[in-house]
Structure formats: C-alpha cells, structure tokens
Amino acid sequence: MSFDLVANVVVAGVLTGLVYGLMALGLSVIFGVVRVVNFAHGEMMTIAMYAATVLFASLGLDPFLCILPAALAFFVFGYLLQAGLINPFITRPEHSQFMLLVAVAIIMVNALLMVFGPSARSIQVDYQLESFELGKVLVDKARFFAALAAVVTAGLLFSFFKFSLMGKAIRACADNHLGALVVGLDVKKLYALTFGLGSVCVAVAGCAMVLLVDVTPPLGPAYTLLAFVIVIVGGLGSMPGALLGGVLIGVSEALAGLFVAPSAKSMFSFGLLILILLLRPQGLLGKKA
What we know:
Elements: H1 3-34, H2 41-59, H3 67-86, H4 94-116, E1 131-134, E2 137-140, H5 141-163, H6 165-175, H7 177-182, H8 187-209, H9 219-234, H10 239-259, H11 265-279
Antiparallel strand pairs: 1-2
C-alpha cells in the first residue's frame, strides 16, 4: 500500500472530521452552558440535510448557498425550543430532561419518515467529481468546501464568545449560574440564545454533510451518538476539543475503511473512545471536575 494512498485517505478524513467537529461543537456549546444534553442533536442535523435537498430540488440552490437561510431558521427553532420547551425542565431531574429530548428526537425521526419516506436522498453538483492537486495528494472539492464552511463557522462562534458582550455574558452563565443571576443577567434568555447558536452549528454541518453522504431519517440517532463520542473524546464542554475530537474520529474512520473495511468505521471510533476514557477520562482538552 503506497504512502500517497494513505496520505489521500488521511486528508479526506481530516476534512470530514472538521464537519463532524462542527456538528459536535453545537452539542458541546449547549451542554457547556445550559448543562442539558441535546439527545435530538443528530436528528436536527438530519432535518438540515433534508432542507438542503428540498431547496436544491425546488430552487436549484447549491447546499452552501442554503447555509445562511438554514442557519437563520435553525437559530429561531433552537431559540424557541429552549425558551418554550426545555427551560421549564432546567431545574428538573436529569432523567426528566433525558426523556423530554429523547421524545423530541423520536418525533423528529418519525416526522421525517412521514414526509420523505425511508428512501435515501442525495445532492449531485458538478464539483463533487472535481479535486485539487497538492503534489500527489488529491483533495475533493466538495469535501474541502464543506470543511472550509465548518472552520469559518467555528471561527465566528469562537470570536462571538470571546469578544462580544453577549458572548461574555453567556460564558459568565456557564461559569457561575448563581453569580449570573445575582448580577441581573437574564439567564433563561441567554440559555435560549446558546441553544440557538448550537442549532446554527447543526444547520451548517447538515448543509455541508449532505454533499458527502446520502440522507435518510435513521441517520439522526447515528449522528447523535457520533456527536457524543466526539465531545467525550475532545472533552465535555470544550469547544476546541469538539473540533479536535471530530478530526480524530474522521481520520480513524477513514483509516479503518482503508486498512480493514468500511463497515469497521464505528468499531474504530468506539475503540478510540474507550482508549481516551482509560487514559484521560476528562477528554483530550477537558478539565477535571
């Protein structure tokens, strides 16, 4: 097996992993601030993928042109979901939150089955068959653009949390809930805003991912589980950790498909998860409680 082939596979894995990382970043942001685990995360991403296929089929919109309207729609959806449904459960036991979001996830999957049926849908654009040449490495254009969209979105999110007053207020809520209440911050509103931002990550990742895989309703639970694996590998609540975990999972899946079999991807991903839990239980960039 040639080095060039391995290099091509690794590059493809890194690019796919960045999209995975953006998906997991949304989950990490929501958990890091709201302290609620979104068990409907993958299902929301699947909805974004279907939205991109509908816009492409009806209006001929490129999936990357769908990112802005999808992001806006998902921000509003996430904000309203948190403000109207999840906020009343913030102070309830964790098993109540779990059951609520699992119920939301099941509703989403079955709604997609009712509307679109079980058949897979895909998007075919001209540049999916094109690539860039970097020496002997071929970089798929579609995969590269998807990774670029993920990096830009993650960069904007990092900048928002670091430099904006609203971002600093959200970080204050994450660091000290009681202190945020004492100084007069509207914590419930900031929680809803955070859930909206996490939903934006899902929307962008879904519009990018639809160029890489066919979409079916059962993809939702699989992507939810994958997002959990990524945030645990990277560190719960760590934003850079989510991107790093996504890249590691993407590369491990790509190498598993090359050296073993495509069906062994999940085995290697969960093997990496077990290894991280044994050696560094808080995740690669996570902090000890």
